[in-house]
Write a structure and sequence with these properties.
By secondary structure, the chain is an alpha+beta fold. The protein has helices at residues 18-25, 52-59, 73-81, 98-101, 124-130, 166-190, 222-231, 298-304; strands at residues 7-12, 30-35, 40-42, 47-49, 64-65, 86-90, 108-112, 135-142, 152-159, 238-242, 245-253, 266-270, 273-277, 282-290, 296-297, 313-314. It has two domains: 7-202, Formyl transferase, N-terminal domain (Rossmann fold, 3-Layer(aba) Sandwich); 211-314, Methionyl-tRNA Fmet Formyltransferase, Chain A, domain 2. The chain is elongated and about 70 Å long.
Length: 317
């Protein structure tokens, strides 16, 4: 290729963004700087640690900016000093200001984990799994002021397995999106990139997950509850209450059997089976966690926490 490689500034924070950064580092284009979120407490111990994108950038010797706000003139000056042709955004975690969007000469593009215009917003993978969708994908789009509403430049599709969690799907999409992104950057460098406007009438939104999404309503069908469990993995996880104590439901299955009792009733609690009646069918709890304890497979949990047949699980203590 004779086109000049592009100077790219990369915006990203979590592990989902690392494959895209790696793909850019392995391309003919040059990553001249990285913008990521400030170091924050993470994990069960809430120790302050660096985000995965920062760790990778530092390892690659790339300058890193971690602004607490995108508005200060000092940050905008530091961003402009990268002299970037293009900005690439992958799960940065903050809405970009018009002043930031105007800095790279060729604007900014985003790696978004859905088939736009479906699931604009902060949690597209989780919302797709919770909804029971059988397919999702990645869209490369132009970043504009409106949330995830810019014209689309490329898409790739991926099926969602019936038992896959959000973590499973997100990992697959991260690698698909990385490869797709480099092709778009190459096309931009050569002046051959096309952009297709989104149909706003078809847009749906994927709001950020909260703890309010966690509670299992046992009156709902088993398949819907299973989708909720796997959609909320690895955070914030589904939860229920037994004898007033909170239980985190980490993994589940749908055995395809009739409910056999009022919703929320435990109908089997032996070996690897902890089956609960729902509004339609049984939900089998496969892995769970008592509050403050380690995750356990059901067999291990029942060995130390016997559960009586006929016990009722509920959405409140």
């Amino acid at each position: 290729m004779t086109e000049r490689p592009l100077r790219v500034v990369f915006f990203g924070t979590p592990a989902f963004a690392v494959p895209t950064l790696d793909a850019l580092l392995g391309s003919r284009h040059r990553v001249v700087g990285v913008v990521t979120q400030p170091d924050r407490p993470r994990g069960r111990g809430q120790r302050v640690s660096e985000a995965p994108v920062k760790v990778r950038a530092v390892d690659a010797g790339i300058p890193v900016l971690q602004p607490a706000s995108l508005k200060p003139p000092e940050f905008l000056a530091d961003l402009a000093a990268f002299d970037a042709d293009l900005g690439v955004v992958t799960a940065y975690g903050r809405i970009l200001t018009e002043a930031v969007l105007a800095v790279p000469r060729r604007g900014m593009i985003n790696v978004h984990a859905s088939l736009l215009p479906r699931y604009r917003g902060a949690a597209p993978v989780h919302r797709a799994v919770i909804a029971g969708d059988r397919e999702t994908g990645v869209t490369i789009m132009r970043v504009v002021k409106a949330l995830d509403a810019g014209p689309m430049m490329a898409t790739v599709r991926r099926p969602i397995g019936a038992d896959e969690t959000s973590a499973d799907v997100e990992q697959g999409l991260a690698h698909l999106g990385a490869g797709l992104l480099v092709g778009v950057v190459d096309a931009l460098a050569g002046g051959g990139a096309s952009e297709e406007p989104q149909n706003d009438a078809d847009a749906t939104y994927a709001p950020r997950l909260t703890k309010d999404d966690s509670l299992l309503d046992w009156a709902r069908p088993a398949r819907d509850l299973h989708n909720q469990v796997r959609g909320l993995h690895p955070w914030p996880h589904a939860e229920t209450f037994l004898d007033g104590k909170r239980l985190i439901v980490r993994r589940s299955a749908v055995p395809g059997e009739a409910a056999g009792g009022p919703h929320g009733t435990v109908v089997a609690a032996r070996g690897d089976q902890l089956d609960v009646a729902t509004g339609d069918g049984l939900l089998r709890i496969v892995e769970l966690q008592a509050e403050g304890k380690k995750p356990m497979r059901v067999r291990d949990f029942l060995a130390g926490h016997p559960v009586a047949i006929g016990s009722r699980l509920s959405a409140a203590p």
